[in-house]
Fold these 2 entries.
Entry 1:
Amino acid sequence: MKTKFLLLVTIAFFLFGCKAKQKDEIPQLTWLEVESIPESFGGISKGVSAAFTGILDGNLIVAGGCNFPGVTAAEGGKKVYYRDILMLDGSEWKKIGELPEEVAYGVSVVTDDKLIFVGGQNVKPLKSVYVLSFENDTLRLDTLPSLPVGIENASGALHNNRIYVAGGNVDGNPSSDVWSFDLLNSKHWTKEMPLPVEGGLVQPVLVSQLHENSSGEKKLNGAKLKLSSSMQQLYLFGGFTPASGSRPAIVNQDVWEGYYGPKEGWVKSEKPFPSNVLHSSLSGGAGVAIQDSLILLLGGVNRQIFEDALNRNYYLSTSKDTDTDTLTNRLRTEAAEYLLHPVEWYRFNDEVWLYNVNRKEWKSIGNFPQAALAGASVASNGKEIYIVNGEIKPGIRTPKIWKITF
């Protein structure tokens, strides 16, 4: 009996050691450019940002989104919103339906057999919640109870059978609110513990991932066994707080851990995003839970450049409004030229990162030029990740779509 017990303990430690080693390994990313949306689909083929996305029945779905298909934003062009629901079937794009209205800047959530699209905006913030599924190979479009407020530029995640939506603009105002909807037993949205961020948090990244909690040791027949338990937690990255009153705008580099269940609230991680000397950020970026305890994060704007742009009106309001004021003239010139620089000038984040939720550690996977995007839409099925369009500079979208395997 003793020999059998020692053998079991040895096997347990061997398996634990293999698992730990596997978690430490940095996955090798393979990038494959897939078929772009063809010109026959109109303006949406020029590339969009902030579209709804997801993988349904093994196929990539892209719905809505917005762009400047004719005259660019720098030349005063009008932003166009879309309602098309498109599907990549193998290497062929098909239009399989339409949303009831044009929309972008909403939240996409994926369940086993459904895509859920929450909020967004067109000419106004939206409260609508749409559910897409296939029934006998035919697209079915349903709804869930509407949000109590219009929410756009927020982030969301499926967490313990509930949809969570955090931050963004609520009825046009920056917000730190968190809302949830129980997919198993609910008829309305619930307001949860808010993010502890004064002034709101727009365009954050929210991801649900399994966290391992150590709960001490136990002695069994003289051997010490490490006890642990696991639970799903929410992790929030990036985003920005707009200027307000006497406070300038700030791009968030903190990581917030969200707890809902036996204990509730948000705790700031002691390991913020390592922006280093390049001043990169995850604001406008994307995140995906992969493997055990790891979150892959990519994209985002340059913190310094974006904060300067956000704060120009704030600084102008506090400076002297005279032709001889050097600061005022400089700020006005910078504002007028902001959209006119080449892509490289904006220094969007091209570094892909891993965040280990157990160890609160960051590791760089490397620099990938194709990841230097803001407002790209991301879809994942756990085996591959699709990166759909997004901005390569303010106002300019790319039509490229990438598939990452790891």
Note: The CA atoms of residues 98 and 200 lie 32 Å apart.
Entry 2:
Amino acid sequence: MTSLDTSIDIDASPERVWEVLMDFEAYPGWNPFITSIEGDQRVGGRLKARLSPPGGKGMTFKPTVQVFEEGTELTWLGRLVMPGIFDGRHTLRVEPREGGSRFIQRERFTGILAGLMMRFIGEDTEKGFHLMNGALKERAEAG
């Protein structure tokens, strides 16, 4: 497994879901997976994020923003040591749907260690995605 794809339907407007996602300062109070994040959200900007997957070891890394589409998508690329070893392209996407929004969270892993690393972190990371998706739904729907 070298990719993870999750989604959840949220009974809140895409604008509300995006607002919650981009309020980085509030992450420690609601997000069980990305427990802190800060930095420049613009393309080429650097972020500092702390991931805490359930059952796994937490880690802090400094990815580079690859895509920033206001109201729709934030994608960053994180690397282990240097390009081509273990790279993760993480996407947070909000799409409109009838009656609300769909939130999509995905990660594509590449590099020579991608397959091996996914055996160790894949299951816990996917659980973290689902926990975050549920917490985002709860927060966005609460208004």
Note: The longest helix spans residues 114-142.
